TrEMBL record:
InterPro entries: HAD-like_sf, HAD_sf. PANTHER family: ENOLASE-PHOSPHATASE E1. It comes from the Eukaryota. One of its GO terms (molecular function) is acireductone synthase activity. GO terms for biological process: L-methionine salvage from methylthioadenosine. This is Uncharacterized protein.
Length: 186
């Protein structure tokens, strides 16, 4: 998708009439990153590493509130919190503490270099060209957690792409955005 749009922006004007956009609104999955990266890579990473995460971060300020008060020995607490967390993760529970845990595990994984976000080969070059040479603002739209998007883009197979990928953050309910776009299309 990114490559196709870049080809249109690169065609000489005598062959094709094209008005340069002021901004481009992109989704992450399927546009700048492979479809299914989150479900095939990030969620399995959480499931496979929840126990190790708790073992390595047991005494940290981020983890202690999740397991306090500690009334049993460390191994028993680790076993219990791992089983409990996995049960909710597998069920995709919408509990805020489980969402927070997922983010903490991703941060831990990215910081340790255990996972890398995925972007297509041409993404950094194309987005840099749009943003800096063509002065097109770039916005990302996704229903995923903003923190998860930022983590994915901060540690990719091409390094930190966050500053290249976005011009500004827009935090808006998708339903508020869809109506104005559909109205202006008619």
């Amino acid at each position: 998708m990114v490559t196709r749009l870049n080809r249109y922006l690169s065609i000489p004007s005598e062959r094709f009439s094209f008005v340069k956009p002021n901004a481009v609104l992109l989704d992450i999955e399927g546009t700048i990153s492979e479809m299914g990266f989150v479900s095939r890579t990030l969620f399995p990473f959480i499931k496979n590493n929840v126990r190790l995460f708790f073992e390595e971060t047991y005494d940290t300020k981020e983890t202690l509130p999740m397991i306090a008060p500690i009334t049993a020995d460390r191994d028993r607490v680790l076993e219990t919190i791992t089983k409990y967390s996995l049960a909710h993760i597998i069920r995709r529970s919408r509990i805020s503490e489980i969402k927070q845990l997922q983010i903490l595990i991703w941060v831990w994984g990215y910081e340790k270099g255990l996972i890398k976000g995925h972007v297509y080969d041409e993404v950094t070059t194309v987005l840099h060209q749009w943003k800096n040479e063509l002065e097109i603002d770039i916005f990302l739209f996704s229903s995923a957690m903003i923190t998860a998007q930022q983590l994915l883009l901060c540690s990719t197979n091409y390094g930190n792409c966050l500053s290249v990928a976005i011009s500004n953050k827009i935090q808006i309910d998708p339903s508020e955005l869809i109506l104005p776009i559909s109205k202006s299309a008619y």
